[in-house]
Amino acid sequence: MNLSLHIIAGAIIAASARNASEVLLGALIWPAIYCAYATLIERAALRESVAKLRERGKPSPLATYYSTIGSGALLAALAVASAGFALRQWLN
Length: 92
Fold this sequence. Notes:
Distance between the termini: 33 Å
Number of strands: 0
Oligomer: single chain
Strand content: under 5%
């Protein structure tokens, strides 16, 4: 998981959101963007992780990989975006 990207995404979501629903929407869109990034840019990591999951006998290693990185992206971006949005609202 690339935590620095999730933190940056959360900060951008917090800075651009006008209300809490936009924070949630942005955080829900981010995992799809990150999964596309992981597929296109981090192919070696994807292959390695899927191979490890296949060795462990997971029924669908590719789906397991995407659900793992997607949920991590969602939680990290949502946490940072929520904290940033709350801080911005508190300061205004």
